[in-house]
């Protein structure tokens, strides 16, 4: 089968090549293997009895009728299973952060509609659903808290008794001395208040698990769809009271995650507990209704921000309040602090902000809990910053791109008022190129002509950086009890000269089987077809933090390169003995160790034979076998990709419909290991960003019932609404990673909402209407126009 090779296998040949994805032949021919594809002998099926109310004491939970349903094998409550809570913590005082345990199954109280109360196990999924219907639960209703305003109101009902004022996190940071005077004396002060809608990450494959006890290994095996297999292992072992060795997590092919699967869910642990109790495999696959309404959600945030400018348009200060509605529980391991801490630390972004003050809060409400979703607060705070610059530009009579040019960071490294040091990027260059593309394509002329015809066309920009490759130091600054960061890779060559590479990252669509192989093949001068990537198995992978925050290539890829480099040095040491020359006279390439001086060489297969089958011929200081392990961690503030997005929209005033006419993205992710993969990640991210800007939102009624329980209510854009995206690449190699690469996975999502919102407001400019909230629905636009003074 063709692997789509695009270049010869010489050292350095693979990096930068748009190699076809090695995953695709398997996946497109129906040979992928996902969680739901597992069918083990004697396997049972699980579904969950879920709360029908948002906030109540559970006065009784009767499962007797459930156990009489034909096909039902067992039904377990929290009392039956006796599991420890899932508790995420920060090392902060209680005045700043309040930890709250999330029970695997709710006990005396339910805190959101859809919260699991019991697990029903049956011979098939249909019988399990019938069993769920037979459960009898009675409640003593409590007043639901369904908004930030209700949560923070004096005397509000408490979601958690220990979290007074319904606040899980409350931190004030970066209060620059004299900032009040800065605002008092500034000739221009602008204000933006915005709210962003609650969203669902909506991976194509819902969550799921197949749990089974392996008697031979004395292990509970969880085959599950997760971005963080080692963290699932840790949480499951602690909840179940098992040694961590006794839990193995295996991730098969995975149909998306986008952050929803980078936290530990309750259902996979409950299914594991049921499998232990019954001594049979148990499968749970989330249905779409539960995925939409009861799974981890994201995004609902409120920003109230002021910015001070001088008369020439230079920003003088930033004063912000951030409130994130995190739902009923902290997610593990990141906690409810992940969204507000991200926003408060990184809000200044690509701009030279000299003075900064921020208060960031996470409130708890009777809604499904939130998890990180692609971008993690950056789509929101970037949108706010871009709105501030647009507003200041109008007040000062400056062009929207000109005011950005006056404030963009251009000298690197740059340490900001937020105590973050930015590595070199192309902030100004990306803006200039993006604007030039739209001008050269004639969109400014099109806008003027449309205006004369009474049509509303707008052009909007968004400049931003994407902090990627967060190392341990960056996460430790948040005072996380569980501190992610490093990655480990093992590289092993067999006697045929083929390579097996392990990585602690976890692909859920990012093409790791291709890009990681490109890195290893380059380092060792191998054909990419000789390299096999292994990931997602806690027994085969030493340790890993999984995939999130665009860390995989920046950190995981760096570990792969280091490990491959170590193996290369061992190959040279063995070859030096064979050729009787110093190892420093040798180089790797085309599956050989070669001495350029005289052209003599030894193929890897011959060296592997010596390492494994003729170890008596090894040099005295070289151990048998061909394996090498390396770790990598970014010890500074991380790396920063950057981009500028430019959008042209037409606003149809009669219907309120927003039509995207053109979308241009200029991105810089350092060295692009595979430009085709980079473009795919960027386009996919932009589609999700547009979805948040124009379509997707989960709302709740006064009783805390979610509005979106099917795709009839939850509006997801189709290919008809997502435009063609023109992508232009700049390249500023990263000095802090082994490959020169920076992350790119979240950038598309980060830039799209701000660019689209600015374009819509540019189109609305003649009407006097301004919009700051997302999603921008047709109803929103029409209502705003109808209420224009």
Automatic annotation (TrEMBL):
Keyword Oxidoreductase in the entry? The reply is yes
SUPFAM superfamilies per UniProt: CO dehydrogenase molybdoprotein N-domain-like (SSF54665), Molybdenum cofactor-binding domain (SSF56003)
Task: Name the source's superkingdom.
Answer: Bacteria
Keywords for this protein: Molybdenum, Oxidoreductase
Q: Which residues form the Aldehyde oxidase/xanthine dehydrogenase a/b hammerhead domain?
A: 29-143
Matching InterPro entries: Ald_Oxase/Xan_DH_a/b, Ald_Oxase/Xan_DH_a/b_sf, Ald_Oxase/xanthine_DH-like, AldOxase/xan_DH_MoCoBD1, AldOxase/xan_DH_MoCoBD2, AldOxase/xan_DH_Mopterin-bd_sf
The reply on keyword Lipid metabolism is no
The signal peptide, as residue positions, is none
User: What is this protein's name?
Assistant: Xanthine dehydrogenase family protein molybdopterin-binding subunit
What organism does the record attribute this protein to?
Answer: Streptomyces ovatisporus
């Amino acid at each position: 089968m063709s692997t789509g090779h695009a270049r010869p296998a010489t050292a350095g040949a693979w990096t930068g090549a748009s190699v076809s994805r090695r995953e695709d032949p398997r996946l497109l021919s129906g040979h992928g293997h996902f969680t739901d594809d597992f069918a083990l002998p004697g396997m049972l099926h699980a579904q969950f009895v879920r709360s029908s109310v948002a906030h109540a004491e559970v006065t009784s939970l009767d499962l007797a009728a459930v156990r009489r349903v034909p096909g039902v094998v067992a039904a377990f409550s929290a009392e039956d299973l006796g599991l420890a809570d899932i508790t995420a913590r920060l090392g902060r005082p209680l005045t700043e952060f309040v930890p709250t345990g999330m029970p695997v199954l709710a006990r005396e109280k339910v805190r959101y509609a859809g919260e699991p109360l019991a697990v029903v196990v049956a011979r098939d999924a249909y019988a399990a659903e019938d069993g769920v219907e037979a459960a009898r639960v009675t409640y003593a209703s409590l007043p639901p808290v369904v908004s930030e305003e209700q949560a923070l109101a004096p005397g509000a009902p408490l979601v958690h008794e220990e979290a007074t004022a319904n606040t899980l996190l409350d931190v004030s940071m970066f209060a620059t001395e004299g900032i009040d005077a800065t605002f008092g004396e500034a000739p221009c002060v602008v204000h933006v208040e915005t709210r962003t809608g609650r969203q669902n990450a909506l991976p194509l494959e819902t969550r799921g698990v197949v749990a089974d006890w392996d008697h031979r290994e004395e292990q509970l095996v969880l085959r599950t769809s997760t971005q963080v297999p080692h963290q699932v292992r840790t949480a499951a072992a602690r909840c179940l009271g098992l040694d961590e060795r006794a839990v193995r997590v295996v991730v098969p092919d995975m149909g998306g995650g986008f952050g929803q699967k980078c936290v530990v869910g309750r259902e996979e642990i409950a299914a594991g507990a049921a499998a232990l109790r019954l001594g049979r495999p148990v499968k749970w696959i989330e249905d779409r209704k539960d995925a939409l309404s009861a799974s981890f959600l994201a995004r609902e945030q409120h920003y109230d921000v002021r910015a001070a400018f001088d008369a020439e348009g230079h920003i003088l200060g930033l004063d912000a309040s951030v409130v994130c509605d995190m739902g009923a529980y902290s997610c593990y391991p990141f906690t409810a602090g992940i969204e507000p801490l991200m926003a408060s630390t990184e809000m200044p972004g690509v701009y030279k902000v000299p003075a900064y003050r921020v208060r960031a809060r996470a409130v708890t409400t009777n809604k499904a809990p939130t998890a990180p979703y692609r971008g993690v607060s950056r789509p929101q705070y970037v949108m706010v910053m871009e709105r501030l610059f647009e507003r200041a530009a109008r007040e000062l009579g400056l062009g929207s791109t000109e005011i950005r040019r006056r404030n963009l960071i251009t000298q690197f490294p740059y340490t900001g008022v937020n105590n973050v040091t930015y590595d070199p990027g192309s902030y100004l260059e990306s803006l200039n190129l993006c604007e030039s593309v739209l001008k050269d394509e004639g969109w400014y002329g099109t806008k003027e002509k449309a205006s004369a015809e009474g049509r509303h066309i707008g052009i909007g920009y968004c400049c931003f950086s994407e902090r990627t490759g967060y190392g341990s130091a960056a996460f430790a600054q948040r005072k996380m009890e569980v501190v992610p960061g490093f990655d480990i890779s093992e590289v092993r060559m067999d006697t045929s000269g083929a390579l097996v590479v392990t990585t602690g990252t976890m692909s859920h669509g990012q093409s790791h089987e291709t890009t990681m192989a490109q890195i290893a093949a380059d380092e060792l001068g191998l054909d990419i077809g000789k390299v096999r990537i292994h990931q997602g198995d806690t027994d085969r992978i030493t340790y890993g933090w999984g995939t999130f925050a665009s860390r995989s290539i920046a950190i995981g890829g760096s570990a792969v390169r280091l490990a491959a480099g170590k193996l290369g040095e061992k190959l040279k040491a063995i070859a030096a003995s064979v050729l009787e020359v110093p190892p420093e006279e040798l180089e790797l390439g085309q599956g050989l160790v070669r001495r350029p001086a005289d052209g003599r060489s030894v193929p890897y297969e011959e060296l592997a034979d010596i390492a494994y089958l003729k170890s008596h011929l090894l040099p005295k200081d070289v151990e048998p076998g061909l394996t090498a392990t390396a770790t990598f961690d970014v010890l500074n503030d991380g790396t920063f990709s950057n981009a500028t997005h430019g959008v042209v929209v037409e606003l149809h005033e009669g219907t309120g419909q927003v039509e995207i006419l053109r979308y241009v993205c200029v991105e810089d992710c350092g060295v692009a290991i595979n430009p085709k993969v980079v473009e795919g990640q960027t386009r996919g991210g932009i589609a999700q960003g547009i979805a948040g800007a124009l379509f997707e939102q989960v709302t709740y009624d006064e009783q805390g019932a979610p509005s979106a329980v099917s795709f009839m209510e939850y509006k997801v854009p189709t290919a008809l609404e997502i435009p063609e995206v023109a992508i232009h690449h700049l390249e500023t190699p990263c000095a802090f990673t082994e490959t020169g690469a920076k992350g790119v996975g979240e950038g598309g999502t980060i830039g799209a909402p701000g660019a689209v919102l600015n374009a819509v407001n540019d189109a609305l400019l003649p009407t006097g209407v301004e919009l700051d909230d997302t999603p921008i629905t047709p109803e929103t636009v029409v209502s705003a126009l109808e209420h224009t003074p």
